[in-house]
């Protein structure tokens, strides 16, 4: 009954396990060399200016002015230090801690930003750069969380795009009708869940290949929302497509932290829900009974079955939960970001979220970081474009996608997903 | 004697007998015959019913958004007959147009005129089949190629560029453009293949990203003299030179692309069922470690599968610019085929002739949809809703059986 | 706890896997179930464990009728099972696996791992297991994994414990230990069902024996019954239990391994300076506990390991650094140890699997095209010659029983002109009838003048087949000894003792 | 089965008024669809208005992909449409092919003038003229001395606006000796900021925020309905900034609550043009293929009223705009754009 007898998205065939070994070290080396050549060798005269404050900050921070060449040298030194650390850790067969690539990446980004904006007239507002990255990443993060849960329980979730879109549409319509944001939010979750129900029902009950269902659901939801948008929403947009909007809430103390405070803690409820979601899913997956059972079902359904865990039920409810979470991401688009639904408003975010799931190795925190990286690259291209960049816009628009490919090919490489993801469980 | 016989003789099957009563496999059976047999077997009924259910759901969408129906339902309790007849009018009209526009127009004079719609549908089916074959070959090798869009864009752009810029004579021009398209698709598909083989990068991520990159790359070149029509300032290419256009056959709406895609189906069937390469691809797709142990170079097969997949998808791209939008293309000439091809491949169960029929069905729906929209003001999105429902229902026979309360087939697993 | 099965019948479509089976197991008894592959033993146990619902019949525990709708019910009723294929989540720790399904939690649903660790330690100590609760399953040797399975069952206070072919993957020492554990459990009043194909174990441990053939109980036997009697009862005919082989007539040195090292992905040597010579027409058996580098060594010969140093030479031809293809083309045949994972493509037909390693050229491929007629004729011949029980050459291999699957692998590997034959765990999980056949084929290959390496964790098999025996321990060859070396010496060598020390 | 006859009144999600004329005007959209709050929508409005004037039915079909253009047009012809309005330059090839085959059908080709056939009337707009005024107004209105424009994708109907805006800002600087900065578009290098599509409101919002962070207080998004994202950005930034609409008078069409942010709209009167062409074709039955060029002079393009902002304008701006408009019309002010139509 299944067309795709092979494992596709979820279970990556891994003749060998994680083969990170020396490759990562090489990447450090190569990137460091590039940084050295570009940032120091081709240093541009002048300074780069970074704004740290937002207009409404409590404490107004001064602009940071970085001299092009000196910053390049410092960044190169940090990069070299990171490379050396990586080599040493590798030598001693130690695990590479997560902070190392983060420090390395941050250093390189600072270097790149400085280099690219040295001598430009404009200063780069850092909070804006980071805040925009977060804004672009929010739907991706929700989608990725849904993806992680779904795939961890053994159901490949290609339908994230459909879940986001259904959430966006339903959230907008219901919030418009009821004038209640909370009801809209719940409706978005329900809509995402409904899409998941279909995925779960077909994948679990009817054993249809999960990738088929996912792909088809995306088409179905896009077709349906387009159809209803044109025929129902547009003629009655005042009643059906003018939802209220979540307004940002500043968290007292935290939002006063320089630079990061306003970025992270002057946000809407949905974003706070997202923080909670990342933490809850992470703790839940790895520290609770729920997570243990969920992962067991995704890794070895038969083993779970033999200890009395209902594989179908666990999959069904968790896939539904995943849909609800993705639905929240859709609601962000139409209730928090821009309060109205427009056709195909997700425009591919679900696919990027899927990439983030895999890129993040099915780990909620890493997937979140992957989504943030993508958001950052998207926003960076825009900011660079504004500040004045010699690169044609088409190439800037490619930037986030190229960055993702490089990251996946270079740093992540062969990743192993939940062993049973994509495979229907047949008892016996 | 310590062994106590119970004296009962086991009544089970002979050891050599397979209990499963499966149909004997006939690997050598000819493709078209096998398809025919599959259609005539029990699952054909289910497929028809799946289409019926999907059309019914589509009909509900059409009816509830139809102005006449909405109007009549306003006084439903006074005159329910009006609502019913409005529904029948709306749905009957829409599906009548779908049939008339996609398959056969019985109101047309003469056989030739009557099947014009079908012939036009073949034109829409052609790229879907070609790209669907490419995706299916990827599936069979265990690779999920979501990059159809990018491969079509690059393949088509190369074909188009050859088609309008190279001064080649006669048929050579067409051949060169076609080959260029195939190579362009292959090249773009080779990237995820090589990255997967070399670094293990997941093809799903890479192909998604390459779709976007191809789009912006094409956009860039459409704004430069490389692709932009001379003297124009719109990002639209120059028209394909007449001798690089796929010629119409016998004055019908069908062009050479369709016979070529039939050849592609045969080639794919041959590749998968009859060739050494296909055998190895399938082996890698089914069990990569066993293939490796048997001396098959898994990495090379990964690259080969992606390249071949890209060749087929590239044909769809070439077809788009040499047969469909021959008067110059923009960034949108992929027309969603890259994604629809996934659905087509899935509906066709990744088998070449299955893909062929699935592509044909989608082509008919697409073409009929235009007439439905023009004649009955039914939004085109209904078609994609119905198409996706068909795939879902066909994939889940038990559901269709449950809907129609059909008995489960004998010997179904517990 | 007393277990009684009454008239259990289980059908799969047209096939009756269990046909009115009656079975009584009393507390403090080890009850052996014997039967050839596909006789219906696992099915019966799966019914007992609630994984399958019986079509007819009932299950009684302490004379009370039970209704299990799933394994959860069975476990709560006090039934534990050590499955033929381990039911452990590889990426979980021991403690996590043990607690799975009956987790104790702290506030907020958080796992109480400490409690689970304590439970693991407690049971470990009781039976003298040495199991680290925080070790990940995939990092553990098979023997230890099995202990985890046992801990899992005991942690739920199982009164009836089922062992489905638990010794198939164990070393003699581990088997002995397991048998000790079973006896200990029995003595503490547990009712034990023990399924195995190894008659020696049966006689060693069984209190009663029930033989199943084709889904029916065909008889009961006493533990004192001879191997031959048991075997013929199982198979329904007389079975040759000893390998009938003439002394080897070894020829010249054929395969020479010189200081071979294999490194894993972290650069740790898993094969650590192995030098061996195999002569034409002899069987060199490599014995050893699972996970001491045998797998990697054979894979190194076939170019399946990425990091290999040293020299591997076959008939003067260097194999080191060659691709798998080149090694196969040099005339090497390989039966990998995990046939389902590495040896076969389950979705492919028998015929297709028979050409898997010859997909590039003659005789099945010409000018890139498959020659299906030739393949079909060849496959028919193999089917007959290797007595592969299947409906036909078009049957998918995944539908065959393990024994028949193994025959397909053998039929493929032994159909080329061989200059080297390597068989890893060639009879793992096979019944006596199939073992007999496989052993005959291996000996026949040797007699044809081919150098043969047999890797086995099964001492019976090693002793039966070998002309010489090399024992591996921790990536090194402890010693190469004659075939008639006593079992206890071999056992000690497998634990790392040098042969001189053992002999002394 | 028998289908309802092609011209039956079952068509068109339409006026509903009883048809008094058998003349059938039709319109086909490009991929943006008729709800793009931009030229497709305006074209449809024009056709609707003409149909209601004529007392006729009308038909409208949407295109979802590039594959749809030719079939949609052919099907409209088959539905016996008297005139087919093709909305957007992407349809040009399909129109050309169909017009050659169907010589008895009239065509109106919007935003392109490359077809030279007796039954095709090209309708183009010198949008840069109006955008020039918009740019000037933006520069004059800006308190921060920074204004910004960005587009959906880089196609001429979009960049022609951005060119005009750039020229208008530069003209303001020259005239007033100021240094108002325009972000997001460089008319010389033809490089600037684009969202990459016309759907992604979240990205539109984020990008607008980036411009606001750079101090821009007048934003001119040239991307159909994506102005909503820009409006949301201004609202959530808490800054005082305004938008300029494009194509339609967004002050009137907006339903997203961005109305109070609309300083002014740069109009491209597609609906009037479409209506005129249809009525010309219908009433006089004398359809001419003379190109229609909408410009400041004939009112085909222009600036909308400043609505709520009328009272907040810098003094003299209205007069300046009138002068400039005259200058553009008489050719004394250079508004040239690389994206403009040439003949
Ligand atoms: N899930 C199933 N579906 C259909 N048939 C099955 C299934 N499981 C087992 N069978 C059939 O039931 C019969 C008994 O199988 P079972 O696994 O119980 O044998 P067994 O005695 O355990 O063999 P072995 O010694 O090889 O483990 C087999 O012939 C097999 O064909
Ligand atoms: N899903 C299935 N459908 C049909 N038959 C099945 C299925 N699963 C297992 N079988 C049948 O069950 C039998 C036993 O399968 P199983 O995997 O238990 O092998 P096994 O008992 O371990 O055999 P062996 O002991 O020889 O290794 C096989 O004959 C196979 O044909
Ligand atoms: Mg068994
Ligand atoms: Mg078995």
UniProtKB/TrEMBL annotation, chain A:
The chain crosses the membrane at residues 25-44, 64-89, 98-116, 128-148, 155-175, 181-204, 211-234, 269-286, 316-333, 345-362, 369-389, 395-413. Its main location: membrane. The keyword Membrane applies. GO terms for cellular component: plasma membrane. It is found in: Cell membrane. Coiled coil: none annotated. It comes from the Bacteria. It holds the Pfam family BPD_transp_2. InterPro entries: ABC_transp_permease. Keywords: Cell membrane, Membrane, Transmembrane, Transmembrane helix. GO terms for molecular function: transmembrane transporter activity. It is a multi-pass membrane protein. PANTHER family: GUANOSINE ABC TRANSPORTER PERMEASE PROTEIN NUPQ, SUGAR ABC TRANSPORTER INTEGRAL MEMBRANE PROTEIN-RELATED. This is ABC transporter permease. It comes from Amnibacterium setariae. The lineage of its organism: Bacteria, Bacillati, Actinomycetota, Actinomycetes, Micrococcales.
Automatic annotation (TrEMBL), chain B:
InterPro entries: ABC_transp_permease (IPR001851). The keyword Isomerase does not apply. GO terms for molecular function: transmembrane transporter activity. It is found in: Cell membrane. GO terms for cellular component: plasma membrane. Residues 1-29 are annotated as: Disordered. Keywords: Cell membrane, Membrane, Transmembrane, Transmembrane helix. It is a multi-pass membrane protein. The keyword Zinc does not apply. The chain crosses the membrane at residues 43-64, 118-139, 151-168, 174-195, 204-222, 256-272, 302-322, 354-372, 384-404. This is ABC transporter permease. It comes from Amnibacterium setariae.
UniProtKB/TrEMBL annotation, chain C:
Pfam families: ABC_tran (PF00005). The keyword Transport applies. It is found in: Cell membrane. Keywords: ATP-binding, Cell membrane, Membrane, Nucleotide-binding, Repeat, Translocase, Transport. It comes from the Bacteria. The keyword Cell membrane applies. Transmembrane segments: none annotated. PROSITE patterns: ABC_TRANSPORTER_1, ABC_TRANSPORTER_2. GO terms for cellular component: plasma membrane. It is a peripheral membrane protein. CDD domains: ABC_Carb_Monos_I (cd03216), ABC_Carb_Monos_II (cd03215). Residues 3-239, 255-499 form the ABC transporter domain. GO terms for molecular function: ATP binding; ATP hydrolysis activity. Its main location: membrane. Gene3D superfamilies: P-loop containing nucleotide triphosphate hydrolases (3.40.50.300). PANTHER family: CARBOHYDRATE TRANSPORT ATP-BINDING PROTEIN MG119-RELATED, GUANOSINE IMPORT ATP-BINDING PROTEIN NUPO. This is ABC transporter ATP-binding protein. The lineage of its organism: Bacteria, Bacillati, Actinomycetota, Actinomycetes, Micrococcales.
